Model the fold of this input.
Amino acid sequence: MNRRVALAVAFVLFAIGAAWVLFVGLPRWYSARRTASVNAAASAAVPQPAGSAVRKITATLYYVSQDGMNLTPAQREVPFAAAVTEQARAIVEAQLAPAVPLVSAIPPDTKLRDVFVTERGDAFVDLSAEVSAKHPGGSLDEILTVYTIVNALTVNLPAIKRVQILVDGKEVDTLAGHVDLRHPLATSLDWVAQAAAGKSQ
Amino acid sequence: MKPLVAAFAAALCLLTVALPAQQSAALPYTVVTRDAKRPLAARTINGQEMFALDDLARLFNLTVREDAAAASLNISAGGQSVLLSTQQPLASVGGRMTSLPAAPAREGRSWYVPVDFVSRVLAAISPTKIDLRKPSRLLLVGDIRMPRVAVRVEGLGAQSRVTLDVAPPTGHAVSQEPGRVVVRFEADALDAPDLRANTTTDLVTGVHLGDTAQSVAIDVTPRFGSFRSTDQPGPAGATRIVIDVLPQTEAAPQTPQPQVPARPQTPESPPLLDLPPAGGLRTIVIDPGHGGDDTGAKGTQGTLEKTVTLAVARRLKAAIEARLGTRVLLTHDGDQTVGLDQRAAVANNNKADLFISLHASASLRPAVAGAQVFYLGLEGYGEAAQRAAQAPRDALPVLGGGTRDIEIIPWEMAQARYIDQSAGFARAVEAALRDRVPMSPRALQQAPLRVLVGVNMPAVLVEIGFLTNAPEEQQLLADDRQSALAQALIDGIMRYRAGSGGTR
Done:
């Protein structure tokens, strides 16, 4: 009987400990980490001489190639931002915008919810649920979708080394069952067509 | 809160109270030594066949000492000893941990051990050879030559053919005696529990063990004229003896009828003995992509990826089982939702030798078509993957002293160690597919694919074609394309096995 009591006590203690970690410890740690990284990213921003209010930079964005097997880079003007996080936001928003006649690998109506960048150079891009729910599926298109976002940030912003896509604020396994999104991904030019297209594609 | 805790505690207590052991007598095994045969009682305890440890101790001169404090049994034979845990299905043999199907069971003063204890533990320390044959319930002790024999009889027009598979290959002579043809083996006995012909012909009326324990007799009818015997390498390292029994020919005994080739076509002649395949492939896991709520890609005419992948997977399973004789498991055999980790777990838990995930693709460009083969690319994973791929072995202390080297890598990175083999497998599959189905311009690719990461064996993901391409969608639904895909994947498996020497 003594043993059973000990077991029950051990179980209760474990449950209380687990509950604390889950509901108090982790949220506290996570919000602390997030604030820290946002601050770090802001302070790491490259100081720029003040220019005109509508200052733009040229960024490389990615669209599905004519043959459908690759991403084609295209030069586009996007609003300039002083902080890396803000610049990242501007680039992703430009990438999400319709660009007819170019075809984007990102499902239509996908919205950018948030971007944050850690001091290690990992960017977290939080997209709305459409990116997953409206994805047509298939390994190839999922690879193209993921590397559109990953490359658009890592190629244009040297401060960003790797990108992890979140959906509706949460980490996800995959968008449609193929590409592993549990870790930040580095640039991959495997999926970018060799012949770089000009401004008109 | 209190009643809830009390309920949990009660449930835990219930679990700790041992359920009464279910046990019953099982058919005895036969111990075969050079000079005698004797029965060895077996009983089924909690669904496991077990031997009494005392019986084994008498048989093999074992000394058994129980160490209640360490919850172990110390078993020694001829200077070597093993530690057998009394609570876990584990034994330590010379510092190496060996798993058993069940922990020992105690009944009164005696201990019972699973029958596999004999083959996995005793055989490792015994100075004499021990061979446990579960299907025929035999325990061979010492250097006993007792090949397994299985038989098939078939009528081929006027003549009849008797096929004997013998493993391991054993010297033999075929001779004619009144009313029968006798095959004598250079062996001590034959392991042929169901040596019985299921068909009789107008020339062969039966097959059974001969007058001596080392021979097989084929009973023939008075119409019997002569026989012709050939030996061939059989499946899985066995010898196949093909005996063609010919009828009497009145006028010209020297000119038999149009001869049937002695060498049968391999596909139509399945192995008679249930031996592990020679090439080292025992289990292949096929993962039909998507399923259940996750429909996968959708075709222009509404074809769902999950339907096509399941159809091809079932076809491939049947084809592999028929042609390679390898065990094939599907990660799911119906329209169920299955998690990506669970798919890998099916392969890992069944210790599969190969993993093939089948998918059908989609593209925003309707013209895109053709099959693609993927294997895992690790660039995306950074240093974690590099570390996993080169993880050193750690020496861990084991029960009973000594250490054992164990590779510790994160489970979710298991595939990191198999990238090179997976690349070889992917190349073989791609080449085989190219012979039979249209391929994508990017037919062989690496990518960080989620389902492959945790798979602890060579693994590929095959996109069999694009459902968004209307003509290809139609073709993927057609019988001939599906069987061409299954055929090509088998070819790929065989090419990989040939190229890798079948080793892991």
